[in-house]
Amino acid sequence: MDEKRLVKTSKMLSKILRHDPGRIGIELDEGGWVPVDTLLAALAGQGNRLSRAELDHVVATNNKQRFGYSEDGRRIRANQGHTVEVDLGLPAAVPPAVLYHGTASRTVPLVLAEGLRPMSRQDVHLSADRETAVRVGARHGRPVVLRVDAAALAAGGHEFRVSANGVWLTDSVPPGFLAVLAEGA
């Protein structure tokens, strides 16, 4: 699969498995899973033929590891980032002392006033490293990296979970737990 098709397929799968499964006439179960055969048949029915080998390649090589297979390999889901209601079944986890959030510079005043909220997604996404946060923020404009005092949040009873691809998830981050670490990084 060439790079252009790989990227296009990954974006299409993100749209379907995170935001709009009905677009191709499928339903996700409560955990966000769909049988691989159902997904491939629905894609083919829409004129998007994709082999299991090509799907395996997309899952294995996606640089953000957005997708995962069930243990038996018969179902697939997005690892996080859903706007449709799913329960990923992730257990509570103790976060590192500091996590990071990348955003665009234009959103910083609002974030510092109101904190981080999931917006249209189910969770706020946090990174374990600064470099990932820079890349995330750069997708939306000039990046700003925010430092999240995850240790203090957790000590105060705030729950964290970590997705299969290492993204830290929480319901919100109040402004008092945020600090601007770097701008234009």
UniProtKB/TrEMBL annotation:
Which NCBIfam families does its entry note?
A: PRK00819.1-4
Sequence similarity: Belongs to the KptA/TPT1 family.
- Species of origin reads Streptomyces tateyamensis
Q: Which residues form a coiled coil?
A: none
EC code? 2.7.1.-
Protein keywords: NAD, Transferase
Q: Which PANTHER family match?
A: PUTATIVE PHOSPHOTRANSFERASE (PTHR12684), TRNA 2'-PHOSPHOTRANSFERASE 1 (PTHR12684:SF2)
Q: Which GO terms describe its biological process?
A: tRNA splicing, via endonucleolytic cleavage and ligation
What does the UniProt record say this protein does? Removes the 2'-phosphate from RNA via an intermediate in which the phosphate is ADP-ribosylated by NAD followed by a presumed transesterification to release the RNA and generate ADP-ribose 1''-2''-cyclic phosphate (APPR>P). May function as an ADP-ribosylase.
Instruction: Report whether tRNA processing shows up as a keyword of the record.
Output: no
Molecular function per GO: NAD+ poly-ADP-ribosyltransferase activity; tRNA 2'-phosphotransferase activity
Query: What is the protein's name according to its record?
Result: Probable RNA 2'-phosphotransferase
Q: Which SUPFAM superfamilies match?
A: ADP-ribosylation
